[in-house]
Amino acid sequence: MPYRKSRKSHYQLKDDFRLAHDREPNRVEIFKIGRCKELLDGNEQWVDDESRSRYERMIQLSTPSLDSESGSTPISVEEAFVSVMR
Known about the structure:
By secondary structure, this protein is mainly α. The protein has one domain. Helix content is 51%, strand content 7%. It is built from 4 helices and 2 strands; from the N terminus they run ααββαα. α2 (27-35) packs antiparallel against α3 (49-62). The two termini are 13 Å apart.
């Protein structure tokens, strides 16, 4: 999959996130940081549609649904990452 942070390792991305937010990032956050650019106008620019689609699926799996009839139970962020990325 394409990656937007040309020469930064995942370890550097994690360190940068930790310094900015004073907490450890999860794998879904690292996935987004590496493949999505936050634009000044508030929009996001993804490296490709597949990355955006996978991120949205991870969020969908780990977020409780407002539709009580759906019957789907949210899973942890880690489980969502593993499920989507295999």
